């Protein structure tokens, strides 16, 4: 590893160089491939010249090592070759065809060698592109897995790069709850960062369920600018379409008394305050909150209980 763009938290624009590994060996192989291409091109040009010469000046017409216009060559052309063909000892036409075919095969072989060298160069160029990685989008370095100087292998994870401008919740939803979800539906969600409550939009519902956990992966888009980051915890309230609808009690937020991390309310029971632990739902706006358990319709709840109020005292 020769280069890493930054550390965790650094933001990079799309196209910026993220990481690069040592490519000196690939560069040397690429130079050798360029030399092979040059040799293959020269061999192809020579084969084409030999092929053209065979068409316009066949070697079968000049069998001697030193062709020319002398009397021996003329005698051979007019008498010796002719008598040899008549006697069946040779076939000038067949010899010319064989020479022409051999030169044509030489051209094809030279073309194949050039194509092979070009393919090797393309393969090395692909390896050079893989030796460095550019940011595919505007994002932030989330995690560095290697450092400069480390030895890496093909397929090894080097760095985690995420698009953090728009956050998304990924949840494994039980199969019975997925039936009540539709793409584009808005659902209440609570973020672990500050406990803020927002509306999450159903962005994607996976078509297959996990056969072992009996859940379906669902992704929810969060509004832009919400606090938090990748890997943080969030809760999404999903309606259960299989359960019959029922009324949920609603209380003023001023009636909820927090004891540590547990929400409580004071209920008047036989004229005395009684402290009950409740389970709160989502905020409904207007300083009201829904209550999932702990109180029922008709209970008298004390709003704005005094700080010193104790359960059981009149």
From TrEMBL:
Keyword Transport among record annotations: no
InterPro entries listed in its UniProt record: MdtA-like_BSH, RND_pump_MFP
Gene Ontology terms: cellular component: efflux pump complex
Keyword hit for Phosphoprotein: no
GO molecular function (one): efflux transmembrane transporter activity
Entries under Pfam families matching the protein: BSH_RND
Residue ranges annotated for the Multidrug resistance protein MdtA-like barrel-sandwich hybrid domain, each copy included: 8-157
SUPFAM superfamilies recorded: HlyD-like secretion proteins
Assigned keywords, A-Z: Coiled coil
Coiled-coil positions: 107-134
Name the record gives this protein: Efflux transporter, RND family, MFP subunit
């Amino acid at each position: 590893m020769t280069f890493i763009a930054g550390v965790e938290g650094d933001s990079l624009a799309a196209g910026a160089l993220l990481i690069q590994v040592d490519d000196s060996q690939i560069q040397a192989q690429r130079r050798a491939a360029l030399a092979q291409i040059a040799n293959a091109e020269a061999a192809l040009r020579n084969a084409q010249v030999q092929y053209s010469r065979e068409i316009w000046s066949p070697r079968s017409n000049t069998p001697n090592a030193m062709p020319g216009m002398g009397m021996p060559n003329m005698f051979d052309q007019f008498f010796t070759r002719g008598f040899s063909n008549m006697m069946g000892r040779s076939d000038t036409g067949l010899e010319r065809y064989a020479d022409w075919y051999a030169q044509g095969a030489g051209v094809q072989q030279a073309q194949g060698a050039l194509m092979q060298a070009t393919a090797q160069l393309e393969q090395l160029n692909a390896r050079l592109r893989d030796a460095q990685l550019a940011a595919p989008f505007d994002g932030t370095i989330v995690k560095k897995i290697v450092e400069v100087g480390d030895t890496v292998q093909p397929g090894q994870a080097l760095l985690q790069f995420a698009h953090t401008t728009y956050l998304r919740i990924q949840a494994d939803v039980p199969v019975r709850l997925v039936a009540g979800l539709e793409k584009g539906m808005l659902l209440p969600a609570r973020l672990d960062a500050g406990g803020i409550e927002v509306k999450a939009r159903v962005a994607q519902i996976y078509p297959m369920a996990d056969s072992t956990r009996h859940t379906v992966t669902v992704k929810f888009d969060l509004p832009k600018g919400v606090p938090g980051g990748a890997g943080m915890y969030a809760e999404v309230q999903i309606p259960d379409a299989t359960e019959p609808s029922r009324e949920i009690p609603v209380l003023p937020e001023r009636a909820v008394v927090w004891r540590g991390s547990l929400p409580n309310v004071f209920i008047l029971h036989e004229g005395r305050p009684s402290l009950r632990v409740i389970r709160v739902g989502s905020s409904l706006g207007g300083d009201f909150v829904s209550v999932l358990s702990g109180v029922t319709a008709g209970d008298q709840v004390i709003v704005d209980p005094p700080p010193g109020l104790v359960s059981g005292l009149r």
